[in-house]
Structure to design on (132 residues):
């Protein structure tokens, strides 16, 4: 396995581990403080990842799946993504799909009241809402 690290001065910004096919198996992004900002782990070659994003304080901010579009160097979300408050309460669940090239769509959004743990909004988009 091959590792690649990207620095800004002496600050580590990215660390990427590649598999034998030269596909990123795991990518970790760091905040300037050194804490982990996000971790993307390859689920299925060549570009399907499971992502976890973190607040700078270390709590989970989001968990979901994405497709990495190598030619554009960005991720397009797919499937359900769960978003958390800093107190680790689920604040929303969004469901996405993408065209595998450049467009990302929102299919459903569920917004929760983090005090009462009740659903405030549960909306499906038909047609899906273009986000990117």
């Amino acid at each position: 396995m091959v590792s690649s690290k990207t620095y800004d001065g002496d600050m580590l910004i990215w660390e990427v581990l590649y598999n034998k096919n030269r596909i990123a198996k795991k990518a970790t992004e760091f905040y300037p403080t050194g804490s982990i900002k996000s971790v993307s782990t390859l689920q299925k070659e060549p570009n399907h990842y499971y992502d976890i994003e973190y607040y700078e304080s270390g709590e989970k901010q989001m968990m979901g799946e994405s497709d990495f579009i190598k030619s554009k160097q960005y991720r397009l979300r797919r499937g359900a993504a769960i978003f958390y408050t800093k107190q680790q309460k689920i604040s929303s669940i969004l469901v996405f799909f993408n065209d595998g090239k450049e467009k990302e769509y929102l299919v459903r959004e569920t917004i929760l009241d983090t005090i009462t743990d009740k659903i405030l909004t549960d909306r499906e988009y038909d047609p899906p809402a273009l986000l990117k």
Q: What stands out?
A: The mean pLDDT is 95. The chain has no helices and ten strands. The CA atoms of residues 24 and 53 lie 17 Å apart.
